[in-house]
Each structure stands twice: as structure tokens, then as C-alpha cells.
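Q: Predict the bound structure with NAX.
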Amino acid sequence: MVDNTSQNTSDALNVAVTGAAGQIAYSLLFRLAAGEISPGRKVNLRLIEIEPAKRAAEGVTMELKDAAFPLLGDVTVHTDAREGFQDADVVFLVGAKPRQKGQERADLLAANGAIFGPQGEALGEVAPNARVLVVGNPANTNAAILAAHAKGIAPNRITAMMRLDHNRALSQAADRLDVPVSALSGMVVWGNHSASQFPDATALRAAGEPVFEKLGTEWISEEFIPRVAKRGAEIIEVRGHSSAASAASAAIDHMRDWLLGTEGDEWVSVALPSDGSYGVPEGLVFGFPCRSVNGEWEIVQGLELGEEQKQRIARTQQELEEELAAVREAGFID
Ligand code: NAX
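A: Predicted complex:
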């Protein structure tokens, strides 16, 4: 088990979470306190919120203490992100500006640029070795803004969450094949965490055997891809609120695999700044198949892509290019 993941001198893992009084954090914080990304290791939690939600975050702190987690160290609440990020080993950026009714996508991107630019600067200054996961939407482009401002943080240390999409895709395929999700490997969700994403089951295996034919091309294009890509909206319609516990669970999966490594040759879906792999332009924060090796994400190379895969990847890439152009125009990235 790799354990080269701390930058502070004590053995404790310093974890900062923005949006700490929100619904995702309400599940995430308790799983972090239970030691799920750092088994056996003390965890210090920094809860970061905006002023109006500070008191609610203090309430969450009270509950965290009431749960008497054996591994939980200090829990502090901060309205100054820079203060909360100080010496953080792991950072979950969950807080973001939600889309208002009738709001244009460009305005949403700009509103979030105003959050993720300064947070990037602060992280670069006070937590240059942090592993960062952006959850708050639009997650990929928020992460691109963050990466542009986080001087001193290696690009592959800034990620956006595709793991919920990945897990949703696994679950849909497992149901279709009537196998447990644990039997499946080789799923990829490419591109943007949005309806343009490409959940790709081409390389999927169940207990090592290829299953693409078994899934059926019609089921894949008519049911699987749209269902996974629009699952967030389906959850809102049925549950009445957006995904929360499943999002927190995916964030835990992402960070645990990052810190402790992925299994053998298996890969998972992670959005990170492209290095040009698979022809995706540098700077786009794009969902790729990734392995975690020695505590770092590496993009899996050499997957052969057919024409339809290339077209679907190009589609989600185009959306991300448009998002990046919009934040450039708004002055959030040079
Ligand atoms: P909530 O509205 O319940 O909580 C968000 C919290 O963030 C609020 O308490 C708010 O005060 C806080 N916040 C806002 N700006 C902040 C700032 N600058 N610094 C610190 N805190 C700030 O939303 P929740 O359901 O928890 O969702 C959080 C974000 O995750 C949303 O942007 C949502 O769209 C996104 N999601 C991303 C997913 C993914 O797979 N990447 C899936 C789930 C979720 O939809």
C-alpha cells in the first residue's frame, strides 16, 4: 500500500472541504471522518463555507464530534478558503454557484470563475502538494480555471469528478448483464461531466471476458449512453433533490484510489488537464481512463478507438472547448 501522501509533518491527513454545509458534504464528511480514504490514519477536517452558511457548518462539526470517530482529529470551520487550505494534503472543492433559473451557461461559468480563480491562487500558495478534486459544477471547467491559477501545483494533481458517471455506467451495465459491479473492468467515461459525456463500454469485461457484443449496440446507443449521461436529471426528477450520497461516495472512491492506488491493470475515469493524450487539446480538463500509480494519476495510453468512439469524444471535447473559450472571454484564463 502506497503511503507517500502527506505533506504535513504529523502523520495526520489534512483534508479541506468547501461547500461543507451542503448536501454532498453532509455525507462526504462523515465518511472521511470514518477513515475511508486513509485507513488507520488520523484525519483533520477543515470545513470551508461562505459566511451565510458558517453556522450550519458549525452544526455539522457538532455532529461530527457527536459521532465519536476514533480517527477524527481537529475539526475547524473557515470562511477564508486560504486559511482552510493551509497545508492541506487533500482538497475537495464541492462548493460552487448553482445555475439560476434562466441563467445562460456563460454567466454560470463566469460566476464560478470568480470562485475557482482565487481558490486556485490560494492553493498554489499554501498547499502546493495537495491533491485536489473539483466536484462543484461545471466541474471540468472550474478545474481548468483552478489549474490556470494554481501556480506550483502539478497539473495531474488537479482533477474533476467523473467517478459518479463511471459508477453509474458500471451499475447500468452490471444490471444489464446480471453480474455484480465488482466483476466489471474496462469502463471509461470520456470528456465532460455533463450530458455530452461519452460513457464507453467498448473495452468492458465481466470476469475478464469481453461483453460489448452481449450488451448489444442498440442497447448501448439507445439506452446505456443517454441513461448514464442524463442520470443526474433523472435523480432530481425522482428524488426531488440532486445526487448527494452517490456523489459523496464517488468522491471517496476517487480520492481513496488516488491515495492508495488502483487495482492491478484496472482503470477508472478521472478528469484532469489533458497532456494531449488521444488528441485532446492541452489545458482541457477531460475525462480519461486513468490508473493511480505511486500516488499519481496516469492516463492509460494506447486504447484503440473506432470511428464512433472518436466522434463521440469529439462531441464532448467541443463542448469543453466552448466552455473554455467562454471563461477566456470573461477574463478568467489568459
Ligand atoms: P448544496 O447547494 O447543498 O451545497 C453547496 C454548498 O456550497 C452550500 O452550502 C454553499 O454555501 C457552499 N458554497 C458556495 N460557494 C462557496 C464558496 N465560494 N466557498 C465555500 N463554500 C461555498 O449543493 P450540493 O448538492 O452539495 O452540490 C455541490 C456541487 O456539486 C454543485 O455544484 C453540484 O452541481 C455539484 N455536483 C457535482 C457532481 C459531479 O459528479 N461532479 C454530481 C453531484 C452534484 O450535482
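A: The chain has a mean pLDDT of 95.
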